[in-house]
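ping. complex inputs:
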Amino acid sequence: MWGWVFVLPALIYFAVFSFYPIFNAFWLSLHTKNPLSLRPPRFVGLRNYLDLLDSATFWNSWKATGLFTLGTAIPLVVLSLLLATIIVSRLNFRRFFQLAFYAPAVIPSVVAAAVWLLLLDPRGIANQWVNFVLGLSGVDHKWLANPEMVRFSTTVVYLWEKLGFFTIIFIAGLGGIPQSVKEAAHVDGAGGWQLYRYVTLPLLKPTTLLVSVMAMIFCMRTFATQYLFTQAGAPRESINVVTLSIYTTGIRDLQLGLANAMSIVLLVVMLVLSMLQFRLSGRGEG
Amino acid sequence: MLNRFARRLALMLMAAVLVGGSAIAQTEIVYWTHEDPNRTALEEELIARFEADYPQYKVVRVTNPTDQMAQLILTAFSANRGPDIFNMDIPNEYPYIVNGRVAPVNPAAAGYIDEQSIYDAYLPGTLDPVTFEGELYGLPLEVTNWSIYLNMNVFRDAGLDPLTDYPKTWEQLMEVAEKLTIRDGEIITRRGFDFRYPYYLNFLPSMAAQLGGKLIGDDGKSAIVGDEAWLRVLQYFKDWGTTGKNLGSPTYKAARSIFNFDNNDIGMMESGQYQAARILNDNPGFLPGEGWMVIPFPQWEDAVADVAEAYYGHYWMVNAQASKEKQQAAWTLLGYFASHADEFFQRVAVLQPTQELLNSDMFKNAPYSDVFMGDLAKAPVIYYDENSPQVLQVLKDSIEAVMLQGKEPADVLKTMREGVERALRGEY
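pong. complex structure:
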């Protein structure tokens, strides 16, 4: 009884702000609706979904999302684990490093992207710094102009923004590993790398799974950086991720039904991939 | 004693009810507009005067970032919570008219005898974009056409005489821009000229029209008519971009935003007459005729039609879902604003094209009014329809493909045509 009472606020919150929008999105995805029109939505069944299957733009947006997710989520998991390990192993300045790496995570994505736009301007620091490091002069690396470089730039911005967040989760995971297990392994003669490889990493598996699922979902939902970059003149095709495509279809093209169908497809893909990750992780344990 | 106290209390209560009653009777109207510091100061003054003249009305003016206006207003209207008054550029506003979301002008409330007298008060044609099925749906906050602003100091620095060496044709523009451009390797530190990205609907169709091309065919279904004209335009942008002569790019800071400061980083850019007020505000020492001047929109050397950059308008509109009282109040306020077209021009340099203003000495004597009016006379109205945002996106993608990705104009022409025709059919 009291359990339900304590859970009720969270249930109400999720029902209003998550479940209702999802059901409403699914309902709208079966209709055509112009947000400006006062006429009620018109039921079209699965036509929106069939239109998506025929659309080259839709498939291109999945390609952009897939490449971004692969190129960002994997480095995010690896680098945040590496950073967390380094920070935890340090005796001094641990708090400082935690704070320094976490700081970008509290900056709104739009502000972060705006700052990066200045850095990536042809006359900005990015060109100057890379040219200095590589011993070049006057080379424009076209961070925002070349389609491949734009893709790379969005990955760099996202890594910078989210790395600290996942590092903190790994630090919490590392802190949760019982000291007694490590001491026992040490007594059994395990060296530093063996301890890390055969004790720390297996015990960190639940955290790694959590981080990898979250990183994947975060990457598939990325929007602000791509939106601002395209607004600033970057070519759209290579960074036209699904969320950006949903936005333009709903807000610019006034096709709410189609935009909601895309949202539902995105939701289903994220659910399936998350379940697959859990399943594969469980099989590993077995 | 008690009776006297009771009577006093009753009187005080009655007074409170009366005062409260008059406050309740005041009609509040909400007005959303885009940020413009100069115009904000003027409109707030006008609103204060309006509220003094019409104590029954209260105006709440809300400014929003220019680039977010379209989505903010769309979101508000889709939730049936739109402001009573708003303005946007006509390509974004037109769907509101078509979908019945805005109310027709109330001539009496706006201070006119009838609808015809409003048409008579304005330059012919400038109310066409807000005329739908024989009714008028808006009053112009501003009607704008862009000409070319030229930094005379940059010309002199490059050894050119701005008064004689300014470009008249697109071919000359590229030559002059090359002379003015300074680079550090591949990185441009001073652009001779750059286009106003991503407002391609303003200048691309006009550039093609000069060569006989059309954005939309006469049948309303075909698009990008006139292969030769469009291929020339696309080739021009390919030559202009990073894979060509490297004269400019959409990824550099907007030319218009840096021009005012005269920092030797931009030679020429496109803007409307309102830019003059912004230059004065940002850099009072940068003077017309000494530091900057305005030249007409260039033509191709072998142009077959004399066409200038398209003009567009920001029109004040009134929410059709607002109550009748609020609509009445809204048109009264907008009529009041419109009756101060001279102040809007004098202090903000936005043109509300009333015949009275256009014939005034103030307008005629303003710097480069003759250049802007000369271009306006040759300017078509910007393409506006329900699908204009999609059409703009196709043009943007196409120009970026030739400028930034180095794609061949012939290949891009095909995808551009398909994209615009798909937008015309309302397909995703």
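DSSP finds 20 helices and 14 strands in chain B.
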